[in-house]
Amino acid sequence: MKTKSLLLITALACLGGMAGGSEVIELKMDSERRILKTTDDECVIQVEVAGRKKPDEKRKVPMNLAIVLDRSGSMSGAKIERARQAAALALGLVGPDDTFALVVYDNEVETIIPAGKVKDVSELEKRIQAINSGGSTALHAGVTEGAIQLRKFFDKEKINRVILLSDGIANVGPSSPTNLANLGRDLAGAGISVSTIGLGDDYNEDLMTALAEASHANYYYVKDAEKLPDIFAEELGTVKSVVARNLRLIITLPEGIVGKAVLGEKEFEFKSGSVTIPVGEVSAGQRRRFLVKVAVPAGETKEIPLAKVAMEYADAEGAIQKSSAAYSAQRTADVALSENSIQAEVAGNVAVVSNRLAKEEAVALADKGKVAEAADRLRRQAEANAALPAAAQNDIIRTEQKVLTQRASEMEATGGLSKSSRKLIQYENYQDKKQKR
Asked: Which of 42, 189, 372, 382 is the most exposed place for a label (fewest CB within 10 A)?
């Protein structure tokens, strides 16, 4: 049997699109191996959604935006100046159909610009330039007030987004990662997401990632205040180019196939042979992929159905779009044929997730003072990367291999992780989870 005859994607897709029939979200499926050996009892399936880029199309999804700025004492000097510049930049990107609010906080919260349409830009810019630093950090209260402002113009057809900036430890009001994750989940349930920007090396990265993750938004680590305007521009560019909202995937497994895990996504569990993944918003050009490990029964050389995926989302005009796809694989007794069917992209993505989980474990060990164990965990993961089949090696994996070794050496030399290294690891992990690197 020729290899070409063993192609295994069965696409049952009528991909949803905007008015006029143009496709908005592309749904694709692939696997780590396209041809399984008869003795294989596991398989990793990749489910990917991608927003199709339409550079000539005007944005149709209005933005309901609240900027929440830390103005505590630690934000003095260049930090508060760059924060003002970033806020002014955000103001300048607001369109006629958008609403905008600006909240600042120290030990107290103040709404500098109440939510509403932007009319007198010069007057609002004066208010931004008058922001000064001083006081403590009531982060939870600041985010809560930002959400209150959004609710004044809340519309499920809009992008309802808080952008939070902080450079310090939350020390007024609820301040643990659990507290902020709970807030994020509550806001996400109400249709509001919170992107977080951590500035410098003294903020709590666990808190900032927990809030962004729970509300299905973005997290940024900015070491240098000069980069703040660029980060705001990047975040707002993502928000302004959203092509699909409330996207969700329902992965269903046929009889005999058992779902073991969505790799690196503990919150998603198979129940009765199915798992639902709420993806949320997808922007033009953005890709989100999920790696599903399944148990398969060993068997003879024949085609084996592995999974079906149903996708649903609201497009920029608010219309509900649906599509579906199915995926099958072949079996072979020819080991070489199976090995040659490894898909480099999928295998590389599996390795990236493994690296992310290893770094998470190492950070947790280092936090407990188990530095030698943490360094060993990173070295073992670097060795695992080196042992990957040639087809799975790529520039990202080779770079990660070096980074893992460097982090291990740093731990051994200094007896732990520096603030900046810990934040960088957390940031890289978040970027990897959202496929932004």
From this structure: 189
Residue 148's contacts (CB-CB under 8 Å, 6 or more residues apart) are none
Domain end (from 206, 240, 274): 240
Taking the CA of residue 329 as centre, how many other CA atoms within 13 Å lie in the half-sphere pointing to its CB?
A: 33
Both tokens of 112, joined, read: 């500098």
- Rounded to the nearest 5°, which phi and psi values hold at 264? 75, 10
- Find tokens 């009892």 and name the residue: 41
Asked if residue 164 and residue 100 are part of one domain, the reply reads yes
329: domain CATH number is 2.60.40.3670
Backbone angles phi, psi at 42, to 5 degrees: -140, 155
Helices (H) and strands (E) in the chain, counts: 11, 16
- Collapsing DSSP states into helix, strand and coil, what is residue 110? strand
- Complete edge-to-edge strand list for the sheet that includes strand 109-116: 109-116, 99-105, 63-70, 159-166, 193-199, 219-222
Strand, coil or helix: 169: coil
Helix, strand and coil percent figures for the chain, each rounded to 5? 40, 30, 30
pTM of the model: 0.88
Per-residue pLDDT reduced to its tens digit, 157-181 = 899 999 999 998 888 888 899 999 9
The residue range of the domain holding 391 is 345-433
H helical segments located in 93-227: 121-129, 139-151, 177-189, 205-214
Indicate the residue type of 175: S
Residues 125 and 215 in one domain: yes
Is residue 391 located within the same domain as residue 422? yes
Q: Please compute the mean of the pLDDT values over residues 229-241 and round it to a whole number.
A: 91
